[in-house]
Structures are given as C-alpha cells and as structure tokens.
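Supplementary Methods. Inverse-folding protocol.

Structures were first reduced to a discrete structure-token string of length 411. This string, shown here, constituted the complete conditioning input.
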C-alpha cells in the first residue's frame, strides 16, 4: 500500500485529473494561455475550451489579461483565482514556530515567528498556534471561515496518511498525537496536512517561484540530526509508511560511536551538529586547540557546530580537520544515495550548513570520489538559498499539492 491521504480530506476544491494538470502547470508557471495548455497536453481545442470553461465557472481560475501575440490575436492569459480563500503554513521547530498567511496561489502576505518549546504537551503549543492564526486573520480582516488549508511541518517522524507523529525523539508527549485532527477541530473550514520538517523543506525548495526546479533531487537537512526529503519525478517520495529519507541512521562506520538509536556508526552520530560540537569540545579540553578552548570559555563551557566553523575561519587546524572529517563522512553516505537514486541536484540545508564553503567542498569531493561517473556527470551539490524560508514555504506548498483535490465524480 502506498501512502494515500485519508478519505476524509475536506478540501472544497474538487477537480478532474485533467483540470488538476492545468492547475499544476499554473502553479509552476504563474500564468498560462490556452495555447500553452495545448502544447503541454496535446488536447484538442474543443477539449481545452471545455475544461478551462468548467474551471472558470467554478471560480477556481480566471482570465488575467493578454499575453504576447505570436502573429494573430493576443492570447488570453489564465491564472488561479487568488480570491478564493486563504491558507496557513505552520513550521514547528525544536525551539520556535514560524507562521505564514497566504492566498490560494501561495503568495504569503503575513508572517509571524514565536519562541516555542516542543517538549511542551501538544495542546499547549498548538493552542498557542491557533491563537496566533486568529490574531493574524484579524489583523488582515479575514474571516477565519475562509481559511481553507493549514499545512504543518513538525520536527519528528509523521505517519502521513493520519497526520500523526510516531515516537518523535524531541517531543515525547506527542507520540501518536494527531496534529491533523487537532486543527480540523479548531478550524472546521480547513483541510489539514502534516509532514516532517525535511519533506516540507524539500517541497519549499521545489515550489520556489522564479527558478527552474529540478524534477529529481534530494534535500538534505544537516542539523543536530540528519535527514533527507526526496523529490522524484516532480513529486515527494514518502515511501510506504512515510519515513523515506531518514538517512541519519545509515551506517557509515561499523566501529563508530553508539547513536541515540542504539546502533553503532550512524551518519548522524558521526557527522551531525552534535557530533561536530562534541568532537570540538573534546579537543578543547585536551588542549589540542587554543582557539576552540577560547570559544568554549567564552560560551560558558560549551561549543556549537557554528563555533567550530568560526574557529576554522580563524585558521584553527583542529577545527578544519573536524569539518573535513564530517564532510567526508556525509559525502560517503550521500554517494550511496546518488548511485541508488541518480538525482540531478543535492541541496543542503539546516544549521550545520553555516559551516561554510570548506564543508561543502569536502562533501562534494567525497560524493564524487564514491559515485559512478555517469551518476555525477551533471550532479549539482549546493547549499539551499532559502535558509529559514524553506520550512514555511514548504508548509504552504504541501497544501498546494492537495488543495485542488482530484475526484473521479467531478464534472
Ligand atoms: Zn542511529
């Protein structure tokens, strides 16, 4: 069984599969003409007139002016009707929550950010999130009944079909809690989608307007832990139970340290942010690096991954070696994915990417060394340019994937 969405998906915008194709093209290109649709689909003129007419009658799309003439009459341009209603994106991180209010085209027009602690019970944190959504709606003079979708990213494993967290290490009180059901009760007009933070970052990267999005890429988040979101043929690949991309627990060194999962030598326990910081603290305490020791003293006896990056830029040899080793091991883990999946891009995000260009160069070198020449001929490995935006853009994008819901019995 593949991961389908619950049958109780209550999006109000039902379309046929053909109409969904038209809307998908509009999502990626903004506006399109009937001629563009003909080129993309190969459908007859009569069929296009019919499908576009039905979408206009439903008020889902509208004509928005004229395009450039290709010799004859200027073609009418079509776009999604952005007055239909509103969407909310919620990106829950370990220590903060970001929210955005957007129209149904995905244009964000209000943002909020608050400190939050996910070790709190879910109803405390989500109660506050609901309050903030009402405040945002009020500030924009929006009727909360016009909020048609709430997309939520959470920092833990999600059983996607139920919108439920399963044994999340950072949030013990949330085990088996349905984030979807919570928001469906709080906002009855909205359909609710929930996914893990890495998948929504991958979607955010995929839907960022103004750039050509690759159809086959891997988004790798390197923070305290390491995880990947996989875009395959233009769609997110979640796997059978929704946990595809949990690459942090791939074994890269059988003799490595014991990971929090109980196994030895997981990628995360060797190259994650915590591993980098711990290695640097050990070096500082063993008097191997005066620069790291100084940073540690300044921070009150503690180092973070970004301190190691700073020490490296100050010329510290030990910091450079730690970063090089971490990059090399991440590259070895990713090389396995490159050989298996053959992506055109690997996009790296998360806090540890703040380590800078040397880290990226180490990862790249190691991937190239371990992958087959054909798989890496056009492979691009780069840092995400979205920074902290990826999560919130992705939470909205998750809704856009399902907003116009395909149903067989729709005219
Ligand atoms: Zn592990």
């Amino acid at each position: 069984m593949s991961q389908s969405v619950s049958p109780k998906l209550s999006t109000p915008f039902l379309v046929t599969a053909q109409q969904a194709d038209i809307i998908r093209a509009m999502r990626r290109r903004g506006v399109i003409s009937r001629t563009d649709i003909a080129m993309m689909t190969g459908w007859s003129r009569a069929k296009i007139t019919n499908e576009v007419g039905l979408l206009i009658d439903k008020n889902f799309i509208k004509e928005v002016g004229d395009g450039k003439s290709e010799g004859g009459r200027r073609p009418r341009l079509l776009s999604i009707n952005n007055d239909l209603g509103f969407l909310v994106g919620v990106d829950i991180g370990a220590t903060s929550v970001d929210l955005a209010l957007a129209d149904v085209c995905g244009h964000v027009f209000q943002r909020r950010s608050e400190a939050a602690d996910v070790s709190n019970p879910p109803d405390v944190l989500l109660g506050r999130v609901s309050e903030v959504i009402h405040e945002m709606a009020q500030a924009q003079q929006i009727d909360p009944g016009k909020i048609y979708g709430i997309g939520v990213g959470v920092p833990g494993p999600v059983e996607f079909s139920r919108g439920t967290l399963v044994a999340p290490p950072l949030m013990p009180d949330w085990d088996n809690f349905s984030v979807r059901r919570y928001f469906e009760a709080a906002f009855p007009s909205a359909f609710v989608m929930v996914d893990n933070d890495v998948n929504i970052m991958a979607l955010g990267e995929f839907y960022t307007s103004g750039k050509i999005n690759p159809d086959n890429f891997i988004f790798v988040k390197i923070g305290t832990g390491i995880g990947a979101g996989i875009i395959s043929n233009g769609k997110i690949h979640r796997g059978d139970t929704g946990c595809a991309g949990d690459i942090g627990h791939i074994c890269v060194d059988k003799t490595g340290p014991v990971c929090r999962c109980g196994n030895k030598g997981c990628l995360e326990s060797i190259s994650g942010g915590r591993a980098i910081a711990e290695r640097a603290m050990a070096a500082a305490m063993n008097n191997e690096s005066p620069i790291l020791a100084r940073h540690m003293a300044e921070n009150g006896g503690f180092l973070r991954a970004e301190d190691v990056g700073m020490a490296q830029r100050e010329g510290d040899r030990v910091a450079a070696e730690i970063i090089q080793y971490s990059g090399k091991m991440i590259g070895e883990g990713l090389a396995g994915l490159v050989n298996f999946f053959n992506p055109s891009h690997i996009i790296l995000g998360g806090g540890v990417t703040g380590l800078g260009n040397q880290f990226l160069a180490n990862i790249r070198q190691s991937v190239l060394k371990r992958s087959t020449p054909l798989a890496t001929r056009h492979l691009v490995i780069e840092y995400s340019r979205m920074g902290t935006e990826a999560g919130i853009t992705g939470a909205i994008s998750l809704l856009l994937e399902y907003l116009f819901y395909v149903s067989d019995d729709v005219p």
